[in-house]
Amino acid sequence: MAARYEDMLHCMDQAMGKGWQGKYDIDIVTNRWGTAEASARDVSEAPEAIRLNDLRCRRELNLDGQPRPD
Predict the structure, then answer these.
(1) Neighbouring C-beta atoms of residue 67, cutoff 10 Å
(2) C-alpha distances in angstroms, 12 versus 31, 43, 63?
(3) Pair 37, 5: CB distance under 8 Å
(4) Element of type H or E holding 28
(5) What is the pLDDT along the chain (70 residues), one digit of tens a residue?
(6) 63-70: long-range contacts at Cβ-Cβ below 8 A with a sequence spacing of 24 or more?
(7) Could you give phi then psi for residue 29, rounded to 5 degrees?
(8) Cβ pair 53, 20 in contact under 8 A
(9) Rounded Cα gap, residues 68 and 19, in angstroms
């Protein structure tokens, strides 16, 4: 699972560009797998482009059913 979450951040970097987390003020926190992930609160409040790309990347990597850290 940790590798999938690493791929998730890479997918978001490709979609939104390097440094997207800082640009959109998205906190990256450690999830239960010990890997970095965008917080649930920040993603839910993010612009539509972030939310849509996040959903797409999670679906592609079979992470869409996994809980997200707050």
Answers:
(1) 8
(2) 17, 12, 13
(3) yes
(4) strand 28-30
(5) 999 999 999 999 999 999 999 999 999 999 999 999 999 999 999 999 999 999 999 999 999 999 999 8
(6) 63/4, 63/5, 63/8, 66/1, 67/32, 68/31, 68/37, 68/38, 68/39, 68/40, 68/43, 69/29, 69/30, 69/31, 69/32, 69/37, 69/39, 69/40, 70/29, 70/39, 70/40, 70/41
(7) -120, 170
(8) no
(9) 21
